[in-house]
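Example record for the data management plan.
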Amino acid sequence: MMRLAKHDDASKKAAAEAVAAPAEGSAAIDEGAVGVLDISGAATGADDNAAISVWPAETVGAGGSAAAVAPACTDVRGLVRFACGGVVMLALCAMLLMNGCAAGQASSADAENSAASVTAAETSGDAEETEYASFEDVAADFDESALDLDYSKRDLDASCDASAATAITLEGDSATISGSGATASADGVTITAAGTYVVTGELTDGQLLVAAGDDDKVQLVLAGATIHNEDGPAMYVQNADKCFMTLADDTENTLTDGADYALEADSDEPYATLFSCCDLTLNGGGTLNVTAAYHHAVCSKDDLTVVSGTYNISAVEDGLRGRDSVKIRDGVFSIAAGGDGIKSNKDSKPTKGFVSIDGGTFDIRAGDDAVQAKTLVRVAGGTLTVAANDDASHSDLEMHLLGGMLTVDAGDDAFHAETKLTVDGGTVDVTSCYEGYEAEKIYVNDGETHIAASDDGVNASAADLSDSSDTDTTSNTLPNGEAPGDLGVAGDAGMGKGGAGEETGARDAAGDGAAANADSAAAGNAAFAGDAAGQRGPGGNAPTPPDGSEAAANGGAPDNAFAEGAVQGGKGGQGGDMTMGDENCLIQINGGYLVVNAAGDGVDSNGSVEVNGGVLLVAGPTSSGDGAFDYDLTATVNGGTVLMVGSTGMAQNFTSGTQAFAMAATSGTAGQTVAVVDASGSVVASFTAPKQFGMALASSPAFTEGGEYSLVVGGSVEGANADGYADSGTVSGGSETAITASCTASSGLGGLGQGGGPMVAGQAGDVRVQCR
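Corresponding structural encoding:
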C-alpha cells in the first residue's frame, strides 16, 4: 500500500523560505488545504511501496501550482531537491498518461456491458416496481400469497381532530375556509397541503381539488357535503401521497357530474366523479351517493381501499374502480353500473390488478361484469347479491372463494377465471347463468354451492390470456331494467337524476346489440333448460348476455358436442373425428357440498376429473346432446359422495378410482327422489331430481368392491334436506334397480344403448361417449 510521509519542521521551514512570490492576481489557496504531492519511489514502478510526501499548503504558490514551489538558486540541496522533484513529477505524469490511455481503452471496450449493467440494476430491483412486457409474463409470475391484502392502521382509523382541522363550508357558488392549506376560487376549493379538512355544505357547480405535495397525506372528512361539477369530477385528487376520505357518522354526502368533461391537455383524464391519481381510502360511518354521467363513479389510478361506510353508486360505466387494486373490508353497497360493478385493471404487474372482498353487504347490478379483475378476484366474506348481463365475477387469471354468502344471476358465466378457480368456503347460490364455475383448473375444497346453468354447471376449459378473452362492454339497461347513471331510477338512494346518464352514446353499442339477442337467448334457455328449477333471474327474466359472450354466440343454448362439431370440425359430433383432451384442464373436488342443475353438461372437463371428497349432486340435461358427466381424458373417484342423474345419450362413467362406483339406466320424472340403498336398506346417498332423467351414476365411501346395491326411484327418504340429500336413514316406497359397485370400469366405449343396456366407462382420450 502507499504510505503518507509528512515532512519534518526543518524541511517545512526551508521550503517556506524558498517559495517564490505568487503572481499578481493569482488565486490564493484556502487555509488548511493540502499542498503539493512529492512522490518517492514512483519511478521504480513499485506502487505498493511508493511514499507520498505532502507539502503543506503554505508552501504552495499561485493557484496551487507545483511550479511555484522552487528553492533558492543559492541553496544547492534545495536545487537538487527541486531537480529530483521535477524528474519524479515527469515520471508520474507519464504513468498517469499511460494509465489514462489504458483506462480509456477499457472504458471503450466495456461501455456496452456497463450500460447493460445499469439497465439491469434499474430493472432488477423490487418486483413491485417492474412493469412486465406481456400479460403472459404476469401470469407466469403471479402468486396470490405475494399480494398485499391487508389494511393499514391509517386505513382503519376514521377519527379526526376537528379542532385542528381546516373547515371548508360550501355555499352554493362559493366557499368559506377557516384554517390553512386550502383556498377558494370561482372554480371551487383547492387543497395544497397535508392535513385534515372537514367539508360541509353544497357546491352547485364546482370542484374540490387536492393538489398537495408528493409526500402529503390528506384526510377529507365529508360531514354533509354535496358537490356537483358539470364538466369534470366533483372531487379530484390530482396529487398527494395518499388521500383518506372519511364519511362522518350519520351524514349523507353526494357527488355528481355532467355527461361531458373538459379533459387535461393530451390526456383522457380525469374520467370519474370521484377521481384520484394516488391511493384512495374510504372509511367512516356516513353515506356517500355518487352518480356518474360521464364514465366511472369512484376511481383511483393506484389502490382503492374501502373500510366502512354506506355507498349508493350509479354510473354509466364502472362503479368502483382501482387500477392497482380494490380492497373492501366492510360497508354497505348499492351499485348500478353500465359497465363493471367493481373492477381492477392493472395488467403489467403480478402483485396488482386484483379485487379482494373481506366483508360488506353488496347489491350489484351490472351491464357487463359485476366484479372484474386482471389477476385475482378474492371473496373471503360479506353478503353479495349480484345480477350481471355478462359474468357475475371474472378474472383474467385466478379466482378464490373463501367465505361469504353469494347470490348470483348472470347472463353469461357466474364465476369465470382463466387459469384457476378455487372454492375454499362460502355459500354460493347461482340462480341463473350460462355456465357456473369455469376455469382451466377448478378446485372445490369446501363451501356450499348450488348452480343452475343453461349450459355447463362446472366447466374446465383451456385458459385464454389474450386481450380479447374478456371484452369490456357497457349497457344502458341493467338486469332489473334500471338505467345506470341515474339514481332516481334506482330509487333506493332517494336522489334526483345526476345528469344525462340514460344514454351513453357509443359506449352502449355493445349493450344495444346484446338487447337484440334477448329473444333468441330466452328462447334458447327455454328450449334447453327443460323443467329445471331456478334458471331465471328476478322477475322471471334471465339477464341478457352481451355480444361476444359465449352465451350470446350460442343463443343461450347449451354448447353441446354437436354444436362444437359444427364449429370445431366435428369434435365429438356424430361422424366427427375424436380429438384428444387438454392435459391442463382439471376439475378436482376434494370437499364441500356442490349441487348442479344444468341444461348442458353437469360436470364438464376438457381434460380430467378427480373426485376425492365432498358431496357432488348433479342433475344433467334432458337432451341427448349433453350428459350429466363429461370429460375428455380420465375421471377418477377416490372419495366423497357422488350421485348424478341425466339423459342417456351422452352418458359417461368414471374410468377408475380407489373408491367403487356404479352406473345404470333408471328413469324418473321431475320431483322424484333417487336413493342409493345398501343390502340392509340403509340410504347411502339420495337426491331429488328437478327434471326427468334416464340414468344414474353413484359413488360413496360406503361402497365396497363388488358390493350389491339398489337404486330406488320415487321413494320417500327419511331425514333428507331441501335437495333431497341424505347419507343415512331409510327410504319407503319407490321402484328398485340393482347395481354392482366396482373400482374398475368395464372395458369398451361407454354409453347406454338405445335398448337400455349396461353403462360402462369412457376410455381415456374419448371426447364423448355416444349412444348408438
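Summary line stored alongside the record: The chain has nine helices and 51 strands.
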